[in-house]
Each structure stands twice: as structure tokens, then as C-alpha cells.
Write a structure and sequence with these properties.
66% helix; alpha/beta; 672 residues; four-stranded antiparallel β-sheet
Length: 672
């Protein structure tokens, strides 16, 4: 429950709303208990021929007689004590004196109880009974009207309580979700990729809803229902605390049932949430790759895969339902046993006229049917909130499991530190140096080994090599998507791990092989990262990327691209991504297979545009197109996860067998 308590701390920001909701719950609970008190006067009128005025007068006469009798008994015991005290000191005198003192204490306690009863009758007669009509039917109608009014007022307070709790829960979940999103954005790519985006989405949606549901139960039912039970308990204790104790003794058994169920519930709920993450993953993969699924006629396979995951989720959910459904009846059964025991004991006192059971005194005066009925009604009223609370603990455990998943992900510390207090990197103007850079995604497989490279400012550098040699990984180290395992990368003499991360990334523009465009307008996609750009700046960047003409054909710059920009071709997406990079005006340009999906005519035009745009910038690009490679001033050849050769196209054709093989493979159409 540690992480659940952390979630509660977020709700304390809205403590005053919670305080008001608790006050409303208290008033509603008090009215809930007082509503049952109407049973007593109603039964008194229905079971006797007297109205309430006659009944209260008779009760006062009876209690006055009791007080007189008990005062006389006390006077007799006091006289007896004086006689005993006058005897010569002896063990017999001490024994008798102790017995009399004990009797005096008992009688005085009973006299105090009778006087308290007399005071209550006087209070009720003076402030309530004398205002009621003498006609019994009119009194009955008036009492029912008061009960209806009390129920209506109670409903208002319950509404205010639930409304305030709903506001607090909604805003608390918003705060947690926003903080989670912020922390997730700051985490490393490696951390995100290890868990998977589908699993992360499940925590943002399903787990967050579970947290909100648990907090709503906590601030609503967990506060309101115990208050109702306590209100009934207080009134029941006032009638007969001994009989009420018989009912309360069964509570530990109910607690044992709830505790056992809750432990199983938390384990099962965690598995359910994990299965939901698997469902999200399958849905994401299937619908993002729907073209491949249909092209390879894999619909039956995907249906079976989804059905198996959904069935597993359903089975785990059924187990949660079974535990939750079993808890309620078990607690209700224990509550009914307790009520029955108390009712049997009370019935014995009413039918026999006794005050004791098995030598234990349960009442100070014989119990009436009306008093027993009120006690039984209060116990039933107390059992109902306890029954509702029976499933609360198990549901809170489900919410606690969701909190564990959310805060575990939120607490992951990124290895790539942002260094907000580090030196800010000015516009790159000297050189970039890779010093003995080694990197691996896991210890078993090295991706880069001892890469050493110097790149003067303004140079255009091509990186080539077979698939899997670490080309993209090397460039991903430059904006610190990852940090090297060994070695360092220096920009203008500063280790990029020590500089302010935002100042580093503002120097870099990236165009990847698979460009990412957002569900927004074309204008906002181009100025993404350069939000203050004017319309003329955006159009100028689009023209340099040869995207302006097709943008106008699509409806202009305010056209929304839709989900995954499915209305655009691959080449159009890459030209918009290139326009975005041009608008950023970076000092370092990274192009990762940027022209892979562009037709030959556009490729030639973009090639010419880059020849102009690269001036004054350090440019890195990965490509398999040899005419693009020749645009570079130097070419780095990667082989076996290390730098195999560096030079111009002509130099490498002479000295590097690896480069020559790559060149010939593309020219002659052979695979590497």
C-alpha cells in the first residue's frame, strides 16, 4: 500500500474539499442513524393505546418510583454500614463492610442511570413531545413527514460529498497522469523500448482509471459507511451496550475474511493489469501493421492471437470477480449471525422479563418490545454499511496494484541526465570528436567498438556499412538518445554528458528513415521544434524541401494529416520532415536514410537543396545511395561494429575492400 499512500498525497492538495466532504458525510451519517430512532415512538403508539404524551408521563411516573425506591435502598445500606462500622474491629466486620460498600456502589450506579433516564424523559417532554399533536394518527403522519424531510436533507449532504470527492479524484488523477507523462518523456529511449509503448499506454489509461476508482472508494465509501455504522452503533450502545457487544464481537471474523480475500485480490489484480498491457500491445501491432496483416493474409492468425490474450485477460478478470463476489456474502453471513445472536438474547430478556443472562446483567430495567425492535433495527442498519465495506478492501488492493505499476514506471531514473545546471552549449563552431566510443544494448552483443572519429565544423560526413553494423546507433549517441558504455563524445571540446541537454539537442535536427508526423496540421508539423516561426518561414522551408507544391494540392498548410499521416506517401512524409529540419536551422544535421522513399526526380532536387543547406553546418548522413554518398566530403565505413575506413569516395574505392563491395553491390544490384 506504500505507493497507494503516495497517490493519496497528491489528493491532499485539495484537502479543503476533502474536509468539507467529510463534514457532509458526518451530517449524512447522523441523519441516517436518527432516522431509525423514529421506530421507537411509532412502535410505542402502535402496541399501546396511549399517545406519546401519555406514554412519556407514564414513563416519568415509573422512573420517579424507581428513583424513590433506589434512594430508600441506598438509605438502608448507608444505615447498615453505620451499624457495621460501630462493631469492634474484626475480619468479619471488614468482610461485611466490603460487601456493603460494593452494594452501595452498585445501587448508586443504578440510581445514576435512573436519574439520567429521568433527565432524558424531561428533556424529550419539554422540547419534543409537548409540540406533537395528541391524536396518534396525526403524530404518526408528522413523524413520517419528519423522516422524509430528514432523508431529503441527508440526500443533499450525500450529493455534496460525492460531488466533492469526484472533483478531488478527477483532479488528483490528472495530476498523477501529468506527472507520469512528464517523467516518461524524460526517461531514456532504452527504458521506454524495454517496457514497450503498449505497456506504457496501459499504465496511462487502464491503471490510472483503477487508481481513480480506488481513491473514489476511499474518500467516499470508506469515510461515509463507517460513519453510518458508528451512528447506529452509538444509538444501539445507548439502548443496551451489552447486547451490542454481542454483535460487535463478530467483527474480527469479518476482518479475517476481508484480509484473506484482499491478499489474493492484489495478486490477481496485478496479473489482470499485466494482461491488459498485452492486449494493448497486440492491438497496437495489428492496427499499425494492418497493411502487412492483410497483404500476408494473416487475419486468422491475428484473430487467434488476440482471442488467446483476451481469453487470458477474461479468465483473470473472472477470478477477481469471484473473489469480490464471495467476500460480500461471507461478511453478510457473519453479520447476520451476530444480529441473530443479539436478537435471541434480547428476545429472551423481553419474554422472560429478566435483566441477566448467564449471570451477566444486560439491562438496568426490563426490556420492552419497542426497545428490542429499535435495537434490532439499528443493528441491521449497522450491518448494511459493514456489508458495503466488505468489498472495499479488496477493491483498494486492486487500486494499490495499479499504483505499484504506475509509480514503478514513474520512479525509473534516466541514465541520460539532463544536466540543467551544466554549461550551455553554444552554436557548434569547432569540431565533433568521438573518443574510443563503445556501446551495446545488452552485455552479450556489442554494437560499437572503439569508434574514434574527428569531424571539423561544417564538414559533411557520410556513414555507410552493411545492415546491423551500428550506423544509426552511432548517430543516436550524438543527441544523447543513449550514452556510450565507454569513451566519450566531445562537441567543441565539451563532453556532451556534462553540458545542458536541451542546449545540446537544440543544435541538432534529425530526419529519420521513418519520419514521425503528428495528428495536426502540416504547418504545425513543419514548425514542430520551431514554434515561433512565421508562415513565410514555414513556406520557405517547405519550398527548400520541395514540399510546397504537393502541400498546396493537399489543401494548404492548415490541412490536418490525421492519424499516422496516412493520407501522405512515404516520400511526402520525408519531405515534410526535411522541411522541419531546415526550419530549425541547426548547426548539426543528422540524416538517417532520409531519401529512402523519395522518387528519383525529387531525390535529385533534394540533393541540390542539401548542397546549399549544408553550408556552415556539420552534416552526418546514412545512405545506401552512392550518388548521395559522393556529396560527402568524407565517408566513414563501419564493419564488424567498428570503423573500417575513412576517406573520400575515390580513396575508399582504392583502399577499402568493404566499401568497394558495398558500392558494387548497389551498382550491380547484389545484396550485401
Amino acid at each position: 500500500m506504500k505507493n497507494f499512500l503516495r497517490a493519496i498525497k497528491y489528493a491532499l492538495r485539495y484537502r479543503w474539499r476533502l474536509v468539507i466532504s467529510v463534514v457532509c458525510a458526518f451530517v449524512a451519517a447522523a441523519l441516517f442513524g436518527l432516522n431509525f430512532s423514529a421506530v421507537y415512538p411509532l412502535l410505542q403508539m402502535m402496541t399501546t393505546e396511549r399517545n406519546l404524551q401519555q406514554w412519556i408521563d407514564a414513563e416519568m411516573v415509573e422512573v420517579d418510583a424507581e428513583i424513590t425506591k433506589k434512594e430508600q435502598e441506598l438509605d438502608g445500606l448507608a444505615e447498615k454500614k453505620r451499624v457495621i462500622d460501630a462493631l469492634p474491629p474484626s475480619q468479619f466486620r471488614d468482610q461485611k463492610s466490603n460487601e456493603v460498600i460494593k452494594d452501595l456502589d452498585t445501587k448508586e450506579s443504578r440510581l445514576a442511570s435512573s436519574r439520567a433516564r429521568q433527565w432524558r424523559y424531561q428533556l424529550v417532554k419539554r422540547h419534543i413531545i409537548r409540540h406533537l399533536p395528541t391524536d396518534r394518527f396525526q403524530t404518526l403522519a408528522l413523524l413520517l413527514g419528519v423522516v422524509i424531510l430528514a432523508v431529503a436533507v441527508r440526500g443533499v449532504f450525500e450529493f455534496v460529498q460525492e460531488y466533492l470527492v469526484g472533483i478531488v479524484v478527477a483532479r488528483t488523477v490528472l495530476d498523477i497522469r501529468t506527472k507520469f507523462f512528464r517523467e516518461a518523456l524524460h526517461q531514456d529511449l532504452r527504458q521506454i523500448q524495454e517496457g514497450g509503448s503498449a505497456e506504457l499506454m496501459s499504465r496511462f489509461t487502464n491503471d490510472m482509471e483503477s487508481i481513480g476508482h480506488g481513491m473514489k472508494i476511499l474518500f467516499g465509501r470508506v469515510i461515509g459507511e463507517p460513519m453510518r455504522a458508528i451512528a447506529c452503533l452509538a444509538m444501539a450502545m445507548w439502548i443496551s451496550w451489552q447486547l451490542t457487544i454481542l454483535f460487535v464481537l463478530i467483527v474480527p471474523a469479518a476482518i479475517i475474511v476481508m484480509t484473506t480475500a484482499s491478499k489474493k485480490m492484489k495478486r490477481t489484480s496485478r496479473r489482470v493489469l499485466e494482461r491488459m498491457g498485452s492486449l494493448y500491445k497486440i492491438l497496437q501491432e495489428t492496427f499499425q501493421g494492418l497493411r502487412i496483416v492483410k497483404a500476408f493474409t494473416m487475419e486468422p492468425y491475428e484473430r487467434r492471437r488476440f482471442h488467446d490474450a483476451a481469453r487470458d485477460y477474461a479468465n483473470k478478470s473472472i477470478k477477481v470477480v469471484r473473489i469480490d463476489a464471495l467476500t460480500g456474502p461471507l461478511v453478510e453471513l457473519t453479520g447476520m449471525i451476530a444480529v441473530s445472536v443479539a436478537l435471541l438474547a434480547g428476545s429472551y430478556l423481553v419474554l422472560s422479563g429478566e435483566k441477566r443472562i448467564l449471570g451477566i446483567q444486560f439491562t438496568n430495567q426490563p426490556m420492552e418490545i419497542a426497545g428490542l425492535a429499535l435495537l434490532y433495527t439499528l443493528l441491521i442498519g449497522m450491518a448494511d454499511p459493514i456489508k458495503k465495506l466488505s468489498s472495499v478492501y479488496t477493491k483498494l488492493q486492486g487500486s494499490a496494484a495499479a499504483c505499484d505499476r504506475v509509480f514503478t514506471a514513474m520512479d525509473r531514473h534516466p541514465e541520460v541526465t539532463p544536466n540543467p545546471e551544466g554549461p550551455r552549449l553554444g552554436r557548434h563552431c569547432k569540431e565533433i570528436e568521438f573518443q574510443n566510443v563503445c556501446f551495446s544494448y545488452n552485455p552479450e552483443r556489442q554494437v560499437l567498438t572503439n569508434v574514434c572519429l574527428r569531424v571539423p565544423a561544417g564538414e559533411t560526413l557520410a556513414i555507410v556499412g552493411a545492415n546491423g553494423t551500428g550506423k544509426s546507433t552511432l548517430l543516436n549517441l550524438l543527441p544523447r538518445f543513449y550514452d556510450p558504455d565507454h569513451g566519450s563524445i566531445l562537441i567543441d571540446g565539451l563532453d556532451i554528458r556534462t553540458v545542458n541537454l536541451r542546449s545540446l539537442r537544440k543544435q541538432i535536427a534529425l530526419v529519420s528513415q521513418d519520419p514521425i508526423l503528428f495528428d495536426d496540421t502540416i504547418f504545425k508539423n513543419i514548425c514542430y521544434g520551431s514554434r515561433k516561426s512565421s508562415k513565410d518561414d514555414v513556406e520557405g522551408a517547405a519550398k527548400k524541401a520541395f514540399a510546397h507544391d504537393f502541400i498546396m494540392l493537399k489543401g494548404g498548410y492548415e490541412t490536418k494529416l490525421g492519424d499516422l499521416a496516412s493520407s501522405l506517401s512515404g516520400g511526402e512524409k520525408q519531405r515534410i520532415a526535411l522541411a522541419r529540419a531546415i526550419l530549425r536551422d541547426p548547426s548539426i544535421l543528422v540524416l538517417d536514410e532520409f531519401s529512402s522513399a523519395i522518387d528519383p526526380v525529387s531525390d535529385r532536387l533534394i540533393h541540390d537543396a542539401l548542397l546549399d543547406f549544408r553550408k556552415g553546418r556539420t552534416t552526418f548522413f546514412i545512405t545506401h545511395k552512392m550518388h548521395t554518398v559522393q556529396m560527402a566530403e568524407r565517408i566513414v565505413v563501419l564493419d564488424n561494429h567498428a570503423v573500417a575506413a575513412i576517406g573520400t569516395h575515390a580513396e575508399l574505392m582504392e583502399s577499402s575492400e568493404v566499401y568497394r563491395g558495398l558500392y558494387e553491390a548497389q551498382i550491380h544490384g547484389r545484396a550485401v
